What we know:
Layout: E1 14-17, E2 20-28, E3 31-38, E4 46-48, E5 52-60, E6 63-67, E7 70-74, E8 79-82, E9 88-92, E10 98-106, E11 115-118
Antiparallel strand pairs: 1-2, 2-3, 3-10, 4-11, 5-8, 5-10, 6-7, 6-9
Amino acid sequence: MDKKSKSHTTSHQLECRPWGSFESLRMGDGFQVKSIIVNPGSKLSLQSHKFRSEHWTVVRGQARVTCDDQVFDLFPNQTTYIPLGARHRLENSGNEELEIIEVQCGTYLGEDDIIRFEDDFGRV
């Protein structure tokens, strides 16, 4: 590879959590794209973020979504928007793994931008 060529390889790190796992697929200025797997019967914390909004697209499985006062189900190829500051939760309400693609947009995208209100794993 000559000096003018740029490497486009990316290291994808799988992060395991009690509810499943996620993998960061791409990061850029003000955005991050993740693949999230939620185990059957598991759910993430009821949470909010100070610095980012999120867009969720179901790839496979069945998602139960809480966004503020609304609770609804999403199926493959359906999407939802989680506004900045909204109390939200993702839950696998089906019998198979739930996979979503999450696009985060905001001024700060670190995992420490999570304010937890309820959590099945004692992380509040």
